[in-house]
């Protein structure tokens, strides 16, 4: 867990409601995951609703994909499985999910049982704990996984992801769609916003968030060109205008699979994977990242001044003249956390 005031990570010992507090590992007899605790996975989604986190989908190589809905209570530090009814979406990874009102909308992903990309939309009603397929009209986005979705007002916007030239089945002939799609969650109608400005190229495993009524896109990976991105774009649904954003301060390296969350007027970006190269400069795998970046939309004078101090190493030269509380903040902003360290190298082409 990250304290967004001190920038310190702490390890949270969570537990399941049907397990002992100290039993957060695999059971010894059959090595199956404890029921309430979600097993380690990738390609899942996590959404917030009324102060709790809801995790759905994702997969790993040992247990495959999941269709179980897990709920995490950050006050009790407790996981539980949500009992659901209705038409549960097939287990998958690489989908997207957004919460609007009392409903969670899930789109796309790669279904494990049928080994196919999806272009269907499902909805979960938190008031009834019921899943159903969301009936839509118009032309849906291409079958895809590892795209992003955001909700602005009553619309869900889908961007990016990996599709295939053959359609819903994976032939390794990847294609990347740079068109933006919008789903009206009141009428169920898909539409193609007529966009203007400079928008992002097609990509997968990027980040998307909303702030001030706009959608923001960062990073990602274009498999057909083996290219990672470190660019930032905004989309204004009022004008359908894309804009490439120029930021100040140190920025994240080109990457994919990072996670982002908006807290107040700040965006916290953590981790991801970046390409590493051998001595000849050729790509030789991926490195996991454990770095943290903060994008501040409304920086205070204090934080702007702190940036100048840090860039010029003034906190080291004049440490004894800086008030203790400010020294503590500067230390927190520049001192690495010891709780998480990156893996140096791995070969992984998924996601």
Automatic annotation (TrEMBL):
A Pfam match is: Kelch_KLHDC2_KLHL20_DRC7
Q: Which domain of life is it from?
A: Eukaryota
Q: Quote the PANTHER family the UniProt record gives.
A: KELCH DOMAIN-CONTAINING PROTEIN 3 (PTHR46461:SF1)
GO cellular component, alphabetical, reads:
cytoplasm
Write the protein's name: Kelch repeat protein
Which is one GO molecular function term here?
Answer: chromatin binding
Q: Which InterPro entries match?
A: Kelch-typ_b-propeller (IPR015915), KLHDC3-like (IPR052637)
């Amino acid at each position: 867990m990250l304290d967004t005031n001190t920038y310190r990570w702490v390890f949270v010992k969570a537990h399941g409601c049907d397990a002992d507090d100290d039993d957060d590992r695999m059971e010894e007899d059959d090595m199956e995951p404890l029921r309430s605790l979600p097993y380690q996975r990738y390609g899942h989604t996590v959404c917030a609703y009324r102060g709790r986190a809801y995790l759905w989908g994702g997969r790993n190589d040992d247990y495959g994909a999941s269709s179980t809905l897990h709920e995490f209570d950050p006050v009790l530090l407790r996981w539980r499985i949500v009992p659901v009814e209705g038409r549960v979406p097939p287990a998958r990874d690489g989908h997207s999910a957004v919460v609007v009102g009392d409903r969670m909308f899930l789109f796309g992903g790669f279904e494990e049982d049928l080994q196919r990309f999806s272009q269907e939309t499902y909805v979960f009603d938190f008031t009834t704990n019921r899943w159903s397929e969301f009936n839509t009209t118009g032309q849906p986005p291409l079958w895809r996984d590892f795209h992003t979705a955001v909700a602005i007002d009553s619309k869900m916007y889908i961007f990016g992801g990996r599709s295939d030239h053959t359609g819903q089945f994976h032939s390794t002939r990847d294609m990347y769609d740079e068109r933006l799609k919008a789903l009206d969650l009141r009428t169920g109608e898909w539409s193609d916003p007529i966009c203007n400005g400079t928008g992002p190229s097609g990509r997968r495993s990027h980040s998307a968030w909303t702030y001030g009524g706009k959608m923001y896109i960062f990073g990602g990976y274009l498999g057909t060109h083996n290219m990672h991105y470190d660019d930032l774009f905004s989309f204004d649904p009022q004008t359908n205008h894309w804009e490439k954003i120029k930021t100040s301060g140190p920025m994240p390296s080109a990457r994919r699979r990072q996670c982002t969350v908006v807290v107040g007027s700040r965006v916290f970006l953590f981790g991801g994977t970046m390409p590493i190269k051998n001595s000849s400069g050729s790509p030789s795998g991926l490195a996991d990242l454990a770095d943290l970046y903060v994008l501040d939309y409304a920086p205070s004078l204090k934080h702007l001044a702190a940036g100048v101090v840090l860039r010029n190493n003034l906190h080291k030269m004049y440490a004894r003249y800086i008030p203790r509380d400010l020294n503590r903040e500067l230390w927190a902003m520049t001192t690495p956390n010891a709780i998480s360290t990156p893996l140096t190298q791995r070969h992984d082409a998924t996601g």
